[in-house]
Structures
1.
Amino acid sequence: MRNFDLLSPADALAKLMAALDAAQTRMPAESVSVKTAYRRMLARDVTSPIALPEFRRSTVDGYAVRAGSTPGVLRVIGEVQMGELSNLRVKLGDAALVHTGGNIPEGADAVVMVEQIKSLDQSTWGKIQTQAQVSPGENVIQEGEDVRPGDVVMRAGALLREQEIGGLLSLGITQVDVTRKPRVVLIASGDEVVPADSPTRPGQVRNINTPMLSAMLTRHGADVLDYGILPDMRAAFEDAAQRAMREADMTIFMAGSSVSERDFTPDVVNAMGRPGILVHGIAFRPGKPTLFAVCDSKPVFGLPGNPISVLVTATMFALPALYRLQGSTMPRPNLVGAILSSDVKSPRDLEHWFPVALSEDRPAAAAGMPTAEPITTKSNLIFGLVRAAGLVCAPIGVDRLTAGSVVDVRLME
Amino acid sequence: MRNFDLLSPADALAKLMAALDAAQTRMPAESVSVKTAYRRMLARDVTSPIALPEFRRSTVDGYAVRAGSTPGVLRVIGEVQMGELSNLRVKLGDAALVHTGGNIPEGADAVVMVEQIKSLDQSTWGKIQTQAQVSPGENVIQEGEDVRPGDVVMRAGALLREQEIGGLLSLGITQVDVTRKPRVVLIASGDEVVPADSPTRPGQVRNINTPMLSAMLTRHGADVLDYGILPDMRAAFEDAAQRAMREADMTIFMAGSSVSERDFTPDVVNAMGRPGILVHGIAFRPGKPTLFAVCDSKPVFGLPGNPISVLVTATMFALPALYRLQGSTMPRPNLVGAILSSDVKSPRDLEHWFPVALSEDRPAAAAGMPTAEPITTKSNLIFGLVRAAGLVCAPIGVDRLTAGSVVDVRLME
């Protein structure tokens, strides 16, 4: 296929996402303990069962009063204990000692900060004086001021970060409905490929793609099923594809080196379900032969087999689909501006992502930016990414990025 | 303490880091399977035991030849099987069919791409012709070209990302020395505070700080020990502090609301070991009363008790220390440029971080940037961060950020 016939990466991804939307592909809800829900995604909106705060509280250390008693001399009638509703009753001219977060006793409508108080005698419960005038409501947070019962406090699709975990627990919610983890099948292949932890014979190579993708996908919410390494035989692929359609929510084929396998894989994918292949070939380096399909509402990917292509195409195309299956959206990539240290040639008709190392201690750092040093590897070996802090994009239409120009580095973290 | 006497956040953190460096505080190494080492940090440099590639390989589909045979007519003497070293021997005028990644047979020194070949007869092993002239080494990757035996391929302190996992496995390394997970003790307090999953009586509040920090610290490599909620009694704090010095590598006190506790906590921390408190009070909002100590080489933190302060100060100050304990450096925060939607007042003598929501569908999006909408909450309740995509900083010396200005949003992800 000629490059200028290929879809741009953005168009290819949009086509995949539109097909997933049309198929309404989304994992079902499952109820989990909030304590284990960190980094999961909400299956439904969350409505507060209670008011927050649950009672009127002071926002400062001070004395609860009627605003109309200030400025003036006040009589201390007692102290509000933390962890209890106070049974004090504050009348005009009364003051009740209250700590930050403590309950505002009945009758009081404001708090005078302790810094604005002068003691008039030595006794604990004596007379105090303030020259400050407080308004009703000052230094008080009303019951339900933050959250009222029935308020929608979180939306379906939200990623449960630290603050969502805290927010749920603060409402007394200890079980929450999240989307089930998508089951993702990984299928490697190649007669020369052996499991990464096996000894190799000369001429064999270790399968590092499955452990790398398994780690990445698990981190982003997947439950990974490893189908191992298939021989370069059509029947083996057909069996694995059928099994994946029964067991998985998403399937990723990682290509081997065999020409015949490249020839039969599209047929095998199309036989997995309707509509089948949406995109085959993207104006993208590394990963031009990437294949996207939706088969009976499930995303299926055919990724190129070399380790750099696998990692980069999975990041760009499989992760957004994985988040979509969880009813959510992939977090923004972390971009850092940097000064390119040398020219990089790029194919004009492809969107080209190349690895760079970041260095803070070069002259360009004087401009407040690190230097981005392009990493070139002839063999597409994974060590090109080991030395890399991130990837830089040369867009379609650009045939050279020049040394000294400012580029955005998409960090690989 | 008056604000202008306080250390800036950067100076305070530098002081802590310098003390940890001086104490050479770092976790010991432990050997783990590479399959479970994802997101761990290397305890030592990694040296390659082998060459990569382990044998001469083709980078294309084509015919292995002697460069001197091209251009011209070539006799096909066989095919290199994937997964084996070839026993073919290529002489002048010979060609051996080879696939991408396949072994270059003895005698050959270059590969002619299959696209540059014309078949001269119908037989499989017949004569072929090429008009291309290849140079010695063309389309060949030499043994050890990427990695030579003894090369240092990864450095101590490196975070093991997908590509490091793949890189280690590609070298046949299946066990790796990483730094042991730092044990971090979390100590909550307050007579009004109850565990987050307990029923509450009126006047009580749930402890959400421990589950939030536990989630965050675990994600960044810690092994968290939860000491529960202490009563506001000095003896309870002293016991917990002693136990933490025996069991933990790092200790975090989360303040309760009690004034007496605020008074005795510094003494309790100083009694944990030398040099003791380094910083008490930072020109930082939210979290001015934050306390840092190093006690017998172990970092100890006293964080303010309100949930927003806890999360923000832990992110800014405890996470960098946690990475340092692992012999590494905290990843760069993810910053996004945005247009501030409204004025924000800020105390001139504090570095002030406030939460913002990000909105893409406002007029400012026309400038290619989202809008950052400040979130103000009177009570510092956690829902101020639930609605937030991230935090914006008003530096020391600034008393107002104005609507329409461009700000960096530090994403909370």
2.
Amino acid sequence: MNKLILFALPGNETMAARLATELSAPTGELEARRFPDGESYVRYHADVAGRDVVLVCSLDRPDAKAVALYFAACVARELGAASVGLVLPYLAYMRQDAVFKPGEGVTARHFARWLSGCADWLVTVDPHLHRIARLDEVYSIPTRVVQAAPAIAAWVRDHVVRPVIVGPDAESEQWVAEVARAAGCPHEVLRKVRHGDREVEVSVPDAAALAGYTPVLVDDIASTARTMVAAAGHLNAAQLAPPVCIAVHPIFAGDGLDALRAAGVAQVVSCDTIAHPTNGIELAAPLAAAVRELLPTR
Amino acid sequence: MNKLILFALPGNETMAARLATELSAPTGELEARRFPDGESYVRYHADVAGRDVVLVCSLDRPDAKAVALYFAACVARELGAASVGLVLPYLAYMRQDAVFKPGEGVTARHFARWLSGCADWLVTVDPHLHRIARLDEVYSIPTRVVQAAPAIAAWVRDHVVRPVIVGPDAESEQWVAEVARAAGCPHEVLRKVRHGDREVEVSVPDAAALAGYTPVLVDDIASTARTMVAAAGHLNAAQLAPPVCIAVHPIFAGDGLDALRAAGVAQVVSCDTIAHPTNGIELAAPLAAAVRELLPTR
């Protein structure tokens, strides 16, 4: 364990520092920048030979980040690292988990094969597991999935008076139920129909059951945030208290966050899987525990 | 050969159409776009099962393009393509061909391993082969390199009166000599010293030997174009005729082209390895010949 060293890809410095504290290990400097022609450049400013290297990189807006991560992992091996592990608090491409139309492919599988070829293990937080039920169906390296539910439940217990956990769709039911159970409060699930990438329609929940409670809207991925915006609008229309919105993965593409704030919500909070001003729920401790399980024992 | 079908990644439609004409083969539509969260999406709108698929994609500003290309290749295989070949008129990451400073890696090698894992063969134009002497040192799939020199020489013969081919540095000497030989004209080589990514100093050539000629500055990669700008400035200072500038790979990062045009040059012309307004020298014919050599024979 004393051979462990962590490196942050750009934008992941805070998470890397928190993980390093949890793991009682140092962080090293990884220079990762772009040449004028758009090519990625990586250079280690700490010795990695013989060490267990952990790379920390959230993969929102993933393509350029994934290339830099791939190079960082390959170069660590080239420089003689004993092992290379990936902490990817947000894992990309898990939503392309099936062929929906002719001519498509299961991109989740191809992305997984690429990353599996450059590292020894992978840790992430609540990946989108739907048609792919487990990461090891597509990743050939050992993986651990950290659940955000306990940390979210703890945050809700500490910050929300008389909460009811509200899930934005049927898919979220099991997960929302788990947060509610851990927080010791009830839960409710909205029903949604998706039209294309951006349009989402949300059906009426049982408003009477929510009266007197503070709705806590929880979703795994806030991308355009249109699902949450629609859900918030619906709760408002039903004259419920302004909801607290919690996203595990705060991507907030485009004007997602502005739209959500304009939807009459009380607060927007996120887990720190992606560095974002809404971060309020820290996951370094459970991530570090998962890393400990995967590090080589000697 | 009648099973062949070509697809352009975005921005490569012109080259794909020219190659298709040369190869008497159809092009198909490949939908390649981005989801709002920044993930790549690819979908074939033509049947690829049992066909020899050729993907055309120049890899300037490479990271996001390379991910889309990787997915397109993987999905073609997933959909049952008989073979998947890559025509990459500009091949990325060949300049990171050595460890220049401690903590770096040979990224060219890692990029090559990635691409080699998703396709059956690769064709490119004049890759930067310096410390890596041949593509097959790093690519594990069959490759063919198309030389731009004959097409450049033909263009010079047709368009320039009393040309002298001028190379921007010692590295270019062999290549510049080849263009000059094919064009039936003399050549001259400048000497350069590089400081960092953008700063380049160029030494004085034998100006007397160039008097009365039209200098034709030729370089393989015009990225920031600072090498060519410095060379053009130097030729002007020596009171030679305004040079014609020819780039094999017109990346023109940032204000590269503006800077070159401001340097008192007569004309800027490029090979069509990267779609660019300066394109004037077509390479579809030699690229098609290279593709024919690599296609599976049945």
